[in-house]
Design brief:
By secondary structure, the chain is α/β, with parallel strands linked by helices. It has 8 helices and 6 strands; from the N terminus they run E-H-E-H-H-E-H-E-H-E-H-E-H-H.
Amino acid sequence: MKPLIVFAHGAGAPSASDWMRGWSSRLSTLGTVAAFDYPYMKSGKKTPDRQPALIAAHRQTIADARARHDGPLVLAGKSMGGRIGCHVALEEPSVKAVVCFGYPLAAPGGRGPLRDAVLLELRVPVLFLQGSRDPLCPLDQLEKVRARMKAPSRLHVVEGGDHSLTVKSTALRAEGRTQRDVDQRILAEVAAFLDQHAKVK
């Protein structure tokens, strides 16, 4: 049975953004995708809700989606959506795995502590999809966190990728590949991860 993938957006763009729609379409080849908007995004605000409200909205979306679809539950999210998905996985025992597109380990500008506490609490498998040029997730710091995590984790690095896993066109041309090639490789990593942890068939 294919999984139910509840897919959360990042802080700055809704589920209807080109990036989210593109990845919703790709993920739909692996399972049933339920993408959603957090309350602040629905109301047109730019500043995200406080974490408890984000978690509550995420859990409500899961409940609504579960009423319509069966299958192993997977939480996927871009940046903030992935981080909140990790928090939700601590409270939802039915979550089988978490997929983070650009986990925001560091705050913008490097201010404040690392956002690693929830990762150290996690027990469900997590897949990190990270760009090597992402300032919000220095890979050396992520590796140190992964070494301390109790949950199984997997990392796929997009060489030259930014926070949205996009590679500059000049780099792509120099390597003889396209962004579609990059995205297909990412999708293959997600498929292998879900096949292992969410029993995709």
